[in-house]
Design brief:
Layout: H1 5-19, E1 29-35, H2 39-55, E2 58-64, H3 70-82, E3 88-91, H4 101-105, H5 119-127, H6 135-146, E4 155-159, H7 166-174, E5 181-185, H8 192-196, E6 201-204, E7 222-225, E8 228-230, E9 235-237, H9 241-247, E10 250-251, H10 258-273
Parallel strand pairs: 1-2, 1-3, 4-5, 4-6, 6-7, 7-10
Antiparallel strand pairs: 8-9
Bound molecules: NADP nicotinamide-adenine-dinucleotide phosphate.
The site of NADP nicotinamide-adenine-dinucleotide phosphate has 24 residues, from helix 10.
C-alpha cells in the first residue's frame, strides 16, 4: 500500500477551507521568513505560500540578507510578533551558521509559533498539553489516523533525534491515546537494521539516501519516510522505496508522502494559532 500524503494533504486543506468559514471577519495570515537565498528554502516556502493561498489563508513573506546580524533578525521577528494581522510566524530553517536559532525562536510568541519549535510549545508537548506541535511529526500522525493504522501496543522505531522531527515524533507516538512502545535510534545506534526490523511502525528522519532497505523492515510494517536528499536528478528519501514496498504493509513515497503533510499541518497549525491568543503566553 502506498501511503498517499498528497491525497491526505488535500483532504486536510479542504477541511481547513471549511474551518475558515468560522472566521468571516478575520484574514488569517501566515508570515514566513527566509534568511539568505538557500534554493531549497525558497522552494519549500514557495510551496507553503501556494498551499496556504489555495486553502484561503493569507500570506506575507519577509526575505532577509544572508549576513543579517542576530539583533536585526530578532528585530524583524519582533515586528511580526507585534503585528496583530499576523497569526502565524514560520522562519524557514536552517539559518546561516552565524545566527543563533534558539535565541531567534524566543522572539516568536508561543501563540504564533506555527512550527511548534519554541521552548514553550516544546515544553507543553513534553507535559502532554499539546497545541502547536512540529508539523512534520504531526503530519506522520495525521497519516496514521487517515489510514487507520493501529499504534496502541505496537512497536514503533523513530530514526533521528532532532527537535524538529525525531524527538517530537517519539512523544506523539508514545503519548496516551497513541500508546505505541517507541525506540529512538540515531547515528550511534548499534545494529540499526535489527532494531528497525522489530518495528510495526518505522519513521526515518535522517537525510541519508536509501538508508532503509528491505533488510530493515518487518513484513507488514508501516514505513514513513521523512528524510530528504536532493540528488542530481531526483529527490531521494531515507527509504529504498522499491525494495521496501515489496515487504512493508504500507510506505510513503518520496516525493508525495510526508512533505505535503508537513505543509498541510502548517496550515492546520495556522488556523489553530488564530484561536490561541488567550490560551498560550504572549512571550517566553
Ligand atoms: P538532523 O537534525 O540532521 O537529524 C538527523 C538525525 O539523523 C540525527 O539525530 C542523527 O543522529 C541521525 N543520523 C544520522 N546518520 C544516521 C545513521 N547512519 N543512522 C541512524 N541515524 C542517523 O535532521 P532533521 O532536521 O531531523 O531532518 C532529517 C531529515 O528529514 C532531513 O533529510 C531533512 O531534510 C528531512 N525533513 C523532511 C521533512 C519533510 O517534510 N519530509 C521535514 C523536515 C525535515 P545524531 O543525533 O546522532 O547525529
Amino acid at each position: 500500500m502506498i501511503i498517499d500524503g498528497k491525497k491526505v494533504a488535500v483532504d486536510i486543506r479542504n477541511k481547513i477551507k471549511s474551518q475558515l468559514e468560522h472566521f468571516p471577519d478575520t484574514k488569517i495570515t501566515l508570515a514566513t521568513v527566509i534568511v539568505g537565498n538557500n534554493p531549497a528554502s525558497q522552494l519549500y516556502v514557495g510551496m507553503k505560500h501556494r498551499e496556504a493561498n489555495a486553502a484561503g489563508i493569507h500570506s506575507k513573506h519577509v526575505e532577509l540578507d544572508e549576513n543579517i546580524s542576530q539583533k536585526d533578525l530578532e528585530q524583524q521577528i519582533s515586528l511580526l510578533a507585534d503585528d496583530d494581522d499576523v497569526h502565524g510566524i514560520l522562519v524557514q530553517l536552517p539559518l546561516p551558521k552565524h545566527l543563533d536559532k534558539q535565541r531567534m525562536l524566543r522572539k516568536i510568541p508561543p501563540y504564533k509559533d506555527v512550527d511548534g519549535l519554541t521552548d514553550v510549545n516544546m515544553g507543553r508537548l513534553l507535559q502532554g498539553y499539546k497545541q502547536l506541535v512540529p508539523c512534520t511529526p504531526l503530519g506522520v500522525i495525521r497519516l496514521i489516523e487517515a489510514y487507520d493504522i493501529k499504534t496502541s501496543g505496537r512497536n514503533a522505531v523513530v530514526v533521528g533525534r532532532s527537535s524538529l522531527v525525531g524527538l517530537p515524533q517519539v512523544l506523539l507516538l508514545s503519548e496516551r491515546g497513541a500508546d505505541a512502545t517507541v525506540t529512538l535510534a540515531h547515528s550511534r545506534t548499534q545494529d540499526l537494521a535489527g532494531i528497525c526490523k522489530n518495528a510495526d511502525i518505522l519513521v526515518s528522519a535522517v537525510g541519508s539516501p536509501a538508508l532503509i532497505t528491505e533488510d530493515f523492515v518487518k513484513p507488514g510494517a508501516m514505513v514513513f519516510d521523512v528524510g530528504v536528499t536532493r540528488l542530481e536528478n531526483k529527490i531521494q528519501g531515507d527509504v529504498d522505496f522499491d525494495s521496501v514496498s515489496k515487504i512493508a504493509g504500507g510506505v510513503t513515497p518520496m516525493p508525495g508522502g510526508t512533505g505535503p503533510m508537513t505543509v498541510a499541518c502548517l496550515l492546520e497549525n495556522t488556523i489553530l494559532a488564530a484561536t490561541l491568543q488567550d490560551v498560550l503566553p504572549r512571550s517566553h
